[in-house]
Amino acid sequence: DGGITQSPKYLFRKEGQNVTLSCEQNLNHDAMYWYRQDPGQGLRLIYYSQIVNDFQKGDIAEGYSVSREKKESFPLTVTSAQKNPTAFYLCASSPGQVNYEQYFGPGTRLTVT
Amino acid sequence: DQQVKQNSPSLSVQEGRISILNCDYTNSMFDYFLWYKKYPAEGPTFLISISSIKDKNEDGRFTVFLNKSAKHLSLHIVPSQPGDSAVYFCAARERSGNTPLVFGKGTRLSVIA
Question: For residue B103, which residues of chain A lie inside 8 Å, CB to CB?
Answer without folding.
Answer: 42-43
